[in-house]
């Protein structure tokens, strides 16, 4: 998925050791998946092309998060 919040939420849900963080991450994933589907649908209706790649700055954060675990989440 192209959405930064979904990707970072997935890392947090998978790698955190804190129940509160995992719960929040799951809710963030759910909420942003709903928004992403609505956004994609609206873009289709409006015949607008939407990039499916993250901007470089956001991708750098995702790459960094991929190597973290435990209390970093």
Automatic annotation (TrEMBL):
Pfam family, any one: DUF4142
DUF4142 domain span: 4-73
InterPro entries with a match to the protein in the record: DUF4142 (IPR025419)
Domain of life according to the entry: Bacteria
Protein name: DUF4142 domain-containing protein
Lineage: Bacteria, Pseudomonadati, Bacteroidota, Cytophagia, Cytophagales
């Amino acid at each position: 998925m192209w959405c930064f919040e979904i990707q970072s939420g997935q890392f947090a849900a998978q790698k955190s050791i804190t129940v509160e963080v995992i719960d929040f991450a799951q809710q963030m994933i759910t909420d942003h998946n709903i928004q992403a589907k609505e956004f994609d649908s609206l873009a289709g209706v409006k015949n607008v092309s939407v990039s499916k790649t993250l901007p470089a700055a956001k991708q750098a954060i995702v790459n960094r998060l991929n190597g973290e675990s435990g209390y970093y989440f």
